[in-house]
Design a protein that fits this description.
The complex is a heterodimer of chains A (363) and B (326).
Chain A: E1 4-13, E2 16-26, E3 31-35, H1 42-50, E4 57-62, E5 65-66, E6 77-80, H2 92-102, H3 107-120, H4 136-148, E7 154-158, H5 166-183, E8 186-191, H6 194-200, E9 203-208, E10 211-216, H7 218-223, H8 228-233, E11 240-249, E12 252-256, H9 268-277, E13 281-286, E14 291-294, E15 300-309, E16 314-320, E17 322-328, E18 339-344, E19 350-353, E20 359-360
Parallel strand pairs in A: 3-8, 3-9, 6-7, 7-8
Antiparallel strand pairs in A: 1-2, 1-4, 4-5, 9-10, 11-12, 11-13, 13-19, 14-18, 15-16, 15-18, 16-17, 19-20
Chain B: H1 2-13, H2 18-55, H3 78-85, H4 87-117, H5 125-137, H6 140-150, H7 156-165, H8 177-205, H9 209-217, H10 222-233, H11 235-250, H12 254-259, H13 271-282, H14 285-325
Helix pairs in contact in B: 1-2, 2-14, 4-8, 4-11, 4-13, 5-8, 6-8, 8-11, 9-10, 11-14, 13-14
Classes of the chains: A alpha+beta (363), B mainly alpha (326).
Chain lengths: 363, 326
């Protein structure tokens, strides 16, 4: 029920700059994932939103109200810790009642809220159990319930699934997304796991080295990465990138990829954008899922180096100076050492400026 | 040599039958630890039995007979019945209790307050920390001498009081029965608050920071966090700290003996001082043995209580961990 605005947010720890500068608007009721490798500044950002750390510069606005100097207990922020930080010396009921009690609500009001939230999160059967004895999914629900019971305007979740095994994580992802839909609260979710971000978030803010790289819906970020970092970081495996130079041919603008040969001609809008950008050295990118393999014909020439079978699909590793990966059906007829021709699907090709790493985008 | 041979022989004879090997190695283990067991027996059990034996007699080193012949002066538990009627003993016990009832809570509250302050960072923390721990490292006899000097009627304490009040104050701290007891307590609190502080600080530092943050985010004030998160989490450690001090107060001797010698009269005579006097001045060792045994049993009860409390806390945690894994 609150819009969060980060304006020129900066955080330094001594000489180390954890967050170089950050401008981000998180809309009311939105599920925003802060995604990036460890050390990218995502947790720092979250801690500043919660008020656990003071920004070194810039502002944090909740619905236009400057939060600078507002203590963390007064910001109306619910925080779910990575380890859930459940008060293990208390029962489930005492954990849930903690917030309302500390805020001096009446006995009957506390009981009413505990009952509602326990029903909602299916915690009623274990209300009087010591919380130290609970399993992880119940702990997670309890952590969410304990924050939700005081009806915070904003929910912050700090990698809540990172200490859960893979199979269980899938269950918890669904459950969390489901809960967020019901709470309709603004949620900020910090994670280094792109699968979590892609499946749950309305929008993803990709960060690296204290800099916000791109903000967009999961598909925007996946389809149109803003730069080389996002292209490689999002997707599993990440986007294939081959260094090359723009070359005019009689069929239009293409990219000379050296040992790979000449790329198929670029689509008109991308070609125009590339001509307008002026730079000749580029990175030629395409998703491993958006290319086909052939034994001959027009395409990028390479040699198969490894065939990786992951179950539902097969990943073919090929090389021609630089490695690429192609995701194909399981009945792929290539073996290690075979010569292949890679044909990126029309419209799948992305270009990046080799010097600035920024994407060159068609109109 | 026989040990290795035995193992080799057993292993060769019955390589697959475990029980005989087991019994054999248990016997070997017993033989290997026998010297230590005898030593422990000699150190711990022998003096206790000797004490029990002597406590049932009127034996004294002045008799000129060895202690093993103490049965000659067997007195049918007279030492224990005498103890029940010994007013000086009951007085000493009572004073020890008073000291405990004042000092242990005072040390506990002071230490808890200080430990709480030390959870946050403040300028000069390291220096204050060192200063605070210093009293604990002073040899008790030296501490006794320090306070003996401080509390002299012409000493620095009266000097400061005189300067503050503008009057010539000459309080006879150590020769007034009540004030002497106060002085002794002050010395004990000065010397042993640091230990309590150290133990409680260790406990408080171990309180998970995330839980404190979570409580803050839920709107808990500092006071509320202290009483709902910090205190419940250091319960076991508090019990240990209190038990240590209760037991040690019963043994209070060096500082006190140098400051007052148990006086004036018997005004600061605690059980340790009383035992010391009976041992060295009255030389009725059979009686001393009886007193010492009674105290030992009483303190063991305190120790057992503290251990029970700890065990309960640990079992609680163990159950909790097991539950979390399941």
């Amino acid at each position: 029920m609150t819009t969060i605005r980060l304006e020129n947010l900066v955080k330094r720890f001594g000489d180390f700059t954890a967050l170089k500068t950050m401008d981000l608007e998180i809309r009311d009721g939105e599920f925003m994932a802060l995604l990036g490798p460890s050390g990218c500044g995502k947790s720092t950002t979250m801690n500043m939103i919660a008020g656990m750390e003071e920004p070194s510069g810039g502002r944090i606005l909740f619905d236009g109200r400057d939060m600078n100097g507002v203590p963390m207990g007064k910001r109306g922020v619910g925080f779910v810790f990575q380890n859930y930080a459940i008060f293990t010396h208390m029962t489930v009921r005492q954990n849930l009642a903690y917030g309302p009690k500390m805020r001096g609500m009446s006995r009957s009001e506390i009981d009413r809220r505990v009952k509602n939230i326990a029903d909602f999160l299916q915690l009623t059967p274990m209300l009087d159990q010591k919380s130290a004895k609970l399993s992880v999914n119940i702990l997670q629900r309890l952590a969410i319930g304990r924050s939700a019971i005081v009806e915070p305007a904003i929910f912050l979740l700090d990698e809540p699934l990172s200490n859960v095994d893979a199979a269980f994580r899938a269950v918890m992802r669904t459950e969390l997304k489901h809960l967020q839909k019901q709470f309709k609260q603004t949620m900020v979710y910090v994670t280094h796991d792109q699968l979590e971000a892609m499946t749950m978030a309305d929008r993803i803010a990709v960060m690296d080295h204290g800099v916000l790289q791109q903000v967009g819906t999961p598909l925007e970020v996946y389809n149109n990465p803003a730069n080389i970092f996002v292209a490689k970081f999002i997707g599993s495996p990440g986007m294939n990138l081959i260094a090359g130079e723009l070359a005019e041919t009689d069929r239009g603008l293409a990219v000379d990829l050296g040992p790979w040969g000449l790329s198929p001609p670029l689509p008109d809008d991308l070609a125009n954008a590339a001509r307008a950008a002026g730079s000749r050295a580029v990175q030629y990118g395409f998703r491993p899922e958006e290319a086909t393999l052939a034994s001959e014909g027009q395409g990028l020439r390479a040699r198969v180096t490894f065939v990786e079978r992951i179950g539902a699909r097969t990943i073919v590793h090929a090389e021609s100076g630089q490695p690429v990966k192609i995701v194909t059906e399981n009945d792929v007829g290539f073996a290690v050492g075979d010569a292949v021709t890679i044909v990126p699907a029309p419209g799948a090709v992305r270009l990046f400026d080799a010097a600035s790493t920024a994407a060159i985008r068609g109109a | 040599m026989s040990a290795t041979e035995t193992i080799a022989a057993t292993a060769a004879a019955a390589p697959r039958t475990l029980p005989p090997v087991d019994r054999e190695s248990r016997r070997l283990g017993f033989r290997l630890t026998l010297p230590t067991q005898l030593l422990v027996l000699f150190i711990a059990v022998f003096p206790l039995l000797m004490q029990l034996y002597i406590s049932l007699t009127d034996w004294s080193p002045l008799d000129g007979v060895g202690w093993w012949k103490a049965w000659q002066s067997w007195n049918n538990f007279a030492n224990y019945t005498d103890l029940l009627e010994d007013r000086r003993w009951w007085g000493a016990l009572w004073r020890t209790f008073i000291i405990m009832l004042v000092c242990v809570p005072a040390e506990f509250l002071l230490a808890l307050g200080l430990a709480t302050l030390f959870m946050d960072d403040f300028p000069g923390k390291q220096i204050f920390y060192s200063i605070l721990l210093m009293p604990m490292m002073v040899v008790p006899a030296v501490a006794g001498y320090m306070f003996f000097m401080l509390f002299q009627s012409g000493g620095p304490l009266n000097g400061i009081l005189s300067a503050l009040s503008g009057m010539d104050i000459k309080i006879a701290w150590l020769s007034d029965p009540t004030l002497a007891l106060v002085a002794v307590m002050v010395a004990d609190i000065w010397q042993w608050t640091p230990l309590m502080f150290l133990i409680l600080l260790a406990g408080l530092v171990g309180v998970p920071e995330d839980q404190l943050k979570a409580a803050t985010l839920l709107g808990a004030s500092w006071r509320q966090r202290f009483f709902t998160i910090m205190l419940p989490r250091i319960k076991t450690i508090m019990v240990i700290a209190l038990a240590i001090r209760v037991i040690e107060i019963f043994k209070i001797f060096d500082t006190l003996y140098i400051m007052t010698g148990g006086g004036p009269g018997v005004a600061t005579e605690t059980i340790s001082v009383y035992i010391y006097k009976v041992t060295t001045q009255d030389l009725i060792w059979g009686y001393v043995a009886a007193i010492a045994l009674v105290i030992l049993i009483a303190l063991s009860v305190v120790a057992v209580f503290a251990m029970k409390r700890m065990e309960a806390a640990r079992n609680g945690d163990a159950v909790a961990r097991k539950g979390a894994r399941a």
